[in-house]
Amino acid sequence: MSRWTDQWKEFVRETSYVHNLKEEKISNDQFWRSYGIYDKILMHSGYPGEILSKISSFISPKATFLDIGAGTGAFAIPLSRKTTQTIAVDPSAYQLQILSEKARQEGLTNIITIEKEWKDVQPSEISCMNVSGAGISGVENSGVDYSLAAYSLFDEDIEKFLTKMIDVTKKGIFIVFRAEGVDSLNEFAYGPRPYADYLCLHHILKDMGYPFDLILFQRDYSLPIDLLFKVYRSSKKGRDELLGHLSREGRLQERADGKWAAFSAKDALLYRIR
Ligand SMILES: C[S@@+](CC[C@H](N)C(=O)[O-])C[C@H]1O[C@@H](n2cnc3c(N)ncnc32)[C@H](O)[C@@H]1O
């Protein structure tokens, strides 16, 4: 155990949304069902934006791809346009339903979904039909060429999570996680909490003997106030208090269609290409 693995454990146990599920006694799937605004937030926030283009530039055509915690398919859907086969793992049936509906609308037939937490997936489940030359050889091939975990590493035993991910991947591993400090609105809404960012993961990977490369991405965006209230719906602060905080920080914008709030976010892409 290092201070970095301890920091990660504390973050997952005390701060992450997984902790809130325990407090509210709801399942991961119930959370995502009640938080049906995820794709709306993505639409406004410019995510995954440049991160997706960067990852896509590393992935060779006809590769196989594993998306751990694929959610509604922010990466899995666009990347499946170039992969032979994509495996999307997520414990939420609701999130996978949205992903599958998007795949259906796009006519993508190369996505397999596994409704499980990553820790419960057997390495033998991560196998794809191999492609040789011009056609599909029909030979089952264990492991995948590339894997990704984007804002989905919710496991107290992060070394085990990462080791399994590395073990099933042949060519390239991608991890996306936050690079900025805590938004002051978060601290205002929920009080100070244990924190972890990409540096923690970077150190853990290095200590495990896997130095990763790193690129940071900046996103500046705005959210309509009604959407913001839904994001902060479990805060004990009232709507006027949240607005007051944003106003004091000069982050409130008056537009023809109502109030909007300004945000600035930084994401880190950690990657290791073999
Ligand atoms: C914030 S969303 C990110 C979704 C997607 N990767 C993206 O970047 O838009 C987190 C997702 O991770 C999933 N998740 C949570 N814990 C997980 C675990 N232990 N293993 C795999 N997925 C998990 C959740 O169900 C959710 O869909």
Explained architecture:
With 274 residues, this protein is α/β, with parallel strands linked by helices. It has one domain (3-220, 266-273): Vaccinia Virus protein VP39 (Rossmann fold, 3-Layer(aba) Sandwich). It is 39% helix and 28% strand. Strands 1, 2, 3, 6, 7, 8, 9 and 10 form an 8-stranded mixed β-sheet that branches. Mean pLDDT is 93; it is low at 131-138. S-adenosylmethionine binds next to helix 3.
Which helices and strands appear, and what pairs or packs with what?
Elements: H1 3-14, H2 17-24, H3 28-34, H4 38-45, H5 49-58, E1 64-68, H6 76-80, E2 85-89, H7 93-106, E3 111-114, E4 127-132, E5 135-142, E6 144-150, H8 158-167, E7 169-178, H9 184-190, H10 198-207, E8 213-224, H11 225-231, H12 239-248, E9 252-255, E10 258-273
Parallel strand pairs: 1-2, 1-6, 2-3, 6-7
Antiparallel strand pairs: 4-5, 7-10, 8-10, 9-10
Helix pairs in contact: 1-10
The chain binds S-adenosylmethionine.
